[in-house]
Fold these 3 entries.
Entry 1:
Amino acid sequence: MTYRVLARKWRPQNFDQVIGQDHITRSLKNAIINNKIGHAYIFSGTRGIGKTSIARIFAKALRCENRIDQSNACGDCPSCLDFKSGSSMNIYEIDGASNNSVDDVRDLISKIQTLPTIGRYKVYIIDEVHMLSVNAFNALLKTLEEPPEHVIFILATTEPEKLLNTVLSRCQRFDFRNASVSVLLKHLKDICEKEDIQYEDETFLEKICVLGNGSVRDTLSLLDQVLSYCSDNLITEDVLNMSLGLVDSTKLKSLLTAMISYDGQKATEVFRDIIQGNVSLDNLIRGLCEEIYLLIQNSPETSDKAELMWIFETLNQDYNWVKETPLPHLSLELLLQKISLRGSFFNKSKKKVSESENVQSEKTPVETAPIEEGPDTTPILTSQPIQKVSIEKPLAENQEVERAEAETRPVDEVEEIEVKESQAERPKTWDGFLDFLRTIAPAAASNLEQGNIIGIPELSHDGVRVRLAFDSKNKVFFDYLTETEITQRIIGFLSTFFEYEVDQVKLNIDMIDTEEKKRINFQSRADIEEEKIQIENENRRAELRNHPIIKEAEELFNTTVDKVNLTSKGS
């Protein structure tokens, strides 16, 4: 039988099996029991903490015909069996990372009106929804606000800050929490008991939970990794350290003792011995910092704590530099020597601590020499004030969107000075208008770019006339923009930019048929921009294929480059 990894085998199948998210499961169960079901939900949180699992459980329970305790799916009714089949036409799981275009959203919307084949609801689970493009979000907005009664959306994301406010305001939001070490430890012990997994010490499981960083999936994956290293399902310290690249506790304490005792030579010897054991630098720094933290918490002397805090801070700050260097192992070795030699930096006497002393269990205070008062005496590890430098951060895309949403913010609420600055030196053309609109209402500009003007804006002393057209594939934008309130807002923006009174602005929004589209070679602004990007990317790919280094590599290896993948920046 094919082996199933623990993260899949022990994936929760009902609300009661979910760990660490009681605040969410309770709310969803109450919503089902009281029949207060929303039309759209956002599940946000870090990876591997149950967002998709709970979305599936919730979707299955919503459609179940014979719920257990009025909230959990029974697993045996036609709707539950339909879900188990893996090919349900009523519960759709969509990957937002790979289905993020406007066309993908249009295809989704076109299927929404269809009634479910079994049960009451059709549920759409969109994972990593923040990966949808802005245009795709705009296409989804109207449906997300007022979907058919039989449709429910569940949007899962690890980066909710990237979602438009117009999306967030249409959904009930649930923020998932990272699982605590104690919750993860209990979960691992239960699994080990059921899987007949033995361990010499409970602290071994606790280490796995700490490395899991609050993620249930990551924690179970680490346990799988450990089990793949041992042959008899017995987790020992050697198995744990070798499989996960952890530091042997004895060597770790020996290294820390040498550092605290100002013995740089010994610290180097122990460090090199540790590295020979295939220990990752991340795990070494993590282990040292955890041990130092325990010493700080148990040190009775303020001076000792100050010195330990300096060591802790130096390790964390300088390790960022270590990771960026070409030779991180050598850089870390020098960093440990610097910490060991701190006595000479701070005019401190060197007093060695016996290696036999147990740094962790006995919590030995750091020995310090008395400081003589005098003009030449340098205080030990004095706290220097840190000057804070203000750095102006670039405005994130979602922050720009927050400045103005076309569908929620009328023209008269835009600050007058902001509008005047946006109008400055912009040509009175359609391009100039869209450029102006992007600065104060980017969502409105994006909606208009799904169509295009026919001809050019007609400007006269009587006013301005604009004809805006959409083809059939962009009908959702046509329908939205032709709503009376939205049309009036767009007219307000036109009035502000072209400097005419509102009653002097004539805006016609039309749908063009296929024949006229061909006759005038009509393209939406978004399609034109997309075509330009594709041409630029293809030129970039051709440039990379013909790069001298690539040609030399092809000749050297007697091969050809058949595919060039560009990043979002086209590099």
Entry 2:
Amino acid sequence: MNKPIFKTMDGNEAAAYVAYRLNEVIAIYPITPSSTMGEFADAWAALDMPNIWGTIPSVVEMQSEGGAAGAVHGALQAGSLTTTFTASQGLLLMIPNMYKIAGELTPTVFHIAARTVATQALSIFGDHSDVMSARSTGFGMLSSCSVQESMDIAAIAHASALAARIPFLHFFDGFRTSHEVNKIAVLSDDTLRELIDDKLIVEHRLRAMTPDRPVLRGTAQNPDVHFQAKETVNPFYNACPDVVAKTMERFAELTGRTYNLFDYYGAPDAERVVILMGSGCEAVQETVDFLQKQGEKVGMVKVRLYRPFDSKRFIESLPETTKSIAVLDRTKEPGATGEPLYVDCITGLHESMNNGWGSLQSLPKIVGGRYGLSSKDFTPAMIKGVFDNLLQEQPKNHFTVGIVDDVTNTSLDYDPSFSTASEQVTRAIFYGLGADGTVGANKNTIKIIGENTDQHAQGYFVYDSKKSGAMTISHVRFGPDPIHSTYLIQAANFVACHQPVFLERHNVLEHIIPGGTFLLNTPDSKDDVWNKLPRPIQQEIQDKKLKFYVIDAVEVAKNSGMGRRINTIMQVCFFAISGVLPRDQALDEIKKSIEKTYGAKGKAIVDQNLKAVEATLAHLHEVNVSAAINSSREFLPPVPEKPPGFVKDVLGEIIGGR
């Protein structure tokens, strides 16, 4: 077993890292949120980075996703190891070629940052509606729950495809996993070489179309033979689950990380079980841990291999004590009897009763629900609501969780105050402006902590679909243990507002805990800033007894020659205040990060950033809140005491920022 090397990266980079090393041809076409997988591959090829066989993959950008799928099909028929990346409508455009690739039993892997398919409106955010639209193509489907799994399952998918001769979709949740930054153990080239059987590659080459070995392929068939030919693939699909299971066993031998087709997690005598796949599994795992400590008999099943669906292994993964099950789908199929995973689980349960599979004492109650469509947040409070529903004599079926459905009343009630947040985890929220560098600085912060300490680090970034120029919110966590919190921070220790205009428009302190720390970039001095704050912000600082720091980062940036780029300055402030790292060590690591990040852009830019680092701490000040309150001017109402109704009820509310 090779000693792991830890790096911080997002899910897209993790999947692309493996795909690039295990392929010779990569056909790409950009679509959010999968675009950066193709961008990484293109950049690595431009740098002449070799794959595990010492050759540089050919990366070609086509004119559409349909063209990319066609290029993949052609390269596969020529005997090349080939892959692509896509999402949403892009995947739908690939479906005609996918039927052909699967029908010809040609191994490949498409890596999917799963995203909403446009229905009543377009959305760039994540759910499983795209991959579910492709489940009848004949592609196998493997799901990843986290950034670590995006790398690991990608490798398992490529090895399994070669062994089973079945192409695979490897999918993970768009944005929630594709853009989450986390500390992971990176697969070495040696590990990948040991996982991939060279004999299977030779067999793939020998199936290539060539004049030297003529073969009849791609014919038209009539009713006399088409049905029979369609059924000839059955042995390959019947064998596929065993092939994937053996590949997972081999992967565990090489890395020490164990995966199964269906992974059960929770109490061995659980009575209530939740079944799902994708990033929601991480939040459910965290909630199961918390509820178990409260004495509740709960558990979960993570679905890894969704197609072919192995009903026998599914049933065997459930504790024999299971009394009720909730199957959660991150998609909606209007008019269906149930969502796809729910229907498959019901089929598996009833087949188990007929065939005597597993050790269930009786047929459990089973209900299905929808969650997290278009990246709607999925929190432990909602998960507890799902478990609580299973306690009912007649649990609600076909429910939704995370929204309030006052039209058809499908939604579950839950207590939004329920939290599993650990006191050992530092939780920070940063409010920035798209393209102001806030997100990039936070990614560097995560890398500094993740790669230079024993701490685990996670970052998730909420973007407006307008992207550049809109508000960005960075959710950053650090802690001694792996972080499974695949949801937005609800209780922050630290909040930073990089643009003071946000104070007038948003309650940036909504999620900060009592005694937390608030950092504000403002042109106002520490003596004047209090009277310039909106009244609700003043009230939050007082009520929660916050530590309050200010800096004029724009002035520091201007004096350092950085224009209005304040990201490095605010990064220094975070390390100085939070104490996540010793101050001197943090400053040294920031300087190394600057050299690495901006070195290619020239010495002048590096020097400007280093100058800003040196100047920052002298301009960072803590505000004495008690003194500021005592010396502050009396708060005047926005309108006279007896104004006309319109002025009082409308204009007054607007002026008061309410």
Entry 3:
Amino acid sequence: MSIIQRIRDKAAWVLSIFIGVALLGFLVQDAFVGKSGRGLFGGNATTVGVVNGKKLEVADFEKKIKQAEDQYQSMGYPMNDMMRQNVREQTWNQFISETTIEEEVDKLGIAVSSKELDDMLFGPNAPEDFRKQFTNEQGVYDVNAAKNAIAQLRKQKNNSMADNFNNVYLPALVNNRLHEKFLSLLGNTSYFPKWMLEKMNSDNSSMAAVSYVHVPYTTIPDSTVKVSDEEITNYVSKHKEEFKQEESRSIAYVTFDASPSSADTADLRNKLESLKKEFAATPEADINAFLVRNGTQSNFTDAYYSKTVIQVPNKDSVMALPKGGIYGPYLDGGSLTIAKKIDEKTLPDSVRVRHILIATDDPRSGQHILDDSIAKKRIDSIEVAIKSGARFDSLAKKLSDDKNTQDGGSAVKGGDLGYFAANTMAKAFNDFSFNGKVGERKVVKTEFGYHYIEIMDQKNFNPAYKIAYLAKPIIASQETDDKASGQASQFASESRNAKSFDEKVKKGNYNKLLATDIKPNDMNIPALGSSRQLVKWVYDAAVGDVSEMFTIDSKYAVVMLTEINKEGIMSPAKARPLIEYIIRNQKKAEQIKKKIGTPASLEAVATTTNQQVSKTDSLSFARPFFLNAGQEGKIGGYVFNPAVKGKISSPVAGNGGVYVLRTENVYAKQNEAGNIEQQRMALIQNQKSSAARGVVEASLKKAATVKDNRSKIF
């Protein structure tokens, strides 16, 4: 692998860290979604969004997404619909984070000079993974090698790897440093006074003995206390910040299953049964052709795998087969499978080899390095030299082209690759390493070039198996699909409004399902499935509209829009479930207080309310917990007021009921908090770690003007 390739791979690491660090949890709420044109699909919009006047155009957005997807794929992440949606969200959030923080960075004059960038790359604190690429055999970071490699990359034009380094890796590194400086500046404003900590420790060590009567709100039935819409509205208006909402939609829907039926499964099983005899008779050399001809899901892998590596259903039965034996069909995930045992042999589970590589090609980049004939002559000369007494490790250090892998390459280690598991190397390399004997040497040709290999050790010999699988997915037949789509189509045609939708559900005894909190940019509706087109329909519909049939995964769905929630303050109807019990308890508290009146004694209150006098000797100021009532911060605050000690309180409303109390005594338990200065420094450090996020979320996000057009375009 070339130096350029390694650095390109490392860009994924930097981008990933940059996204995580720079965002700092800066999750931006979806905003501004209209019902007008759909950009690429229906309008002329080319602007994905605007943050504080800075535009993000579609082309730039798509480019950033593609770069991020490439980076994630290079790290082995599958790029499915869910992952793509996450990448889109990350890219959008990153744009907002960069824009808002960079504005503050510019105002403060924070910058990264070219000298500082060089220090970041070549100084003593260079990124660890970057350092590894240029660490020599003595374990020392070779700065000159790193500088030469970077100089090459900076000079190259029209090269995807150089472009990735110059336009992704370096900008991400610089942005990350700018953000670090800004957040460090914020963190260093943290301060925690000693007197405040001493007061906290004193309060937290306070305990009380208190007698009380607790009258639960449950003593008054909910049905007797009504809460009006006006009361809900008034409560919301006084607590607007608590009831802000994003734009969202809610739907009701009915699904029609188009997944494979039992008849479809039986039909596939019969087809596979009819292929067993031919599969058994097919020679190993012709197995791939047989599998392709019969529409299998995967090709035959010409390799041996140990029992621990093979993870398929019924593997014990498959391994117990004689050579050439057939097992199945059996269910494996969503497929029916027939397994054929090709061969079995005893092999090590790991080997250690050393090699010398004369490279001819780089399969990753497609770059041709050296003519085959020249490479073959060189490796033959190396073989002759070693057989004549030359040291293998010395020649590897001088002549091997394996110098540029992630850990510095095997050349600097005398060609030693260490231990590796089966089937992790090129096939020819793997076959010799695992089938040969310790001490054996051989020239082997792979797609990388010519290797001169010596087997140094082999460990843990166990049975290994070569198995071919004829696997076919269980899919719905046309008949099954037509039946489901026909039912869905009929339901949709007979349900053109909310009334007819509900009547059809009731008449047909269908299962009416609900989905709420659907956002404008969602790609997926929980429990229903992935369908961007359906989300777009939802945002173009009016309440009560019923959709045509939508195909979602292995089902058809007919959807009715039931609710539109606009960005802003919740409606009384939506807020009611969150508020009603609070207002109801407030009303109950007034009734209980009126019933208690002016208490003469706790015993009188207990008699009036049909409760009992309770007592606790260890009520904590830090956690004022009352038996059978739970934690009551407001009540605890009353108890520890020095002015009320020994007095009967007026009725006090808490979370779970109304209390009448008498504080008997207040005392302090032993304070085990430890050294005050250590506590203070720990609190300051905690403030530093959370200050940046707090400032970004509470200040920059709140102050930013964000216009999100994504739902109109994608």
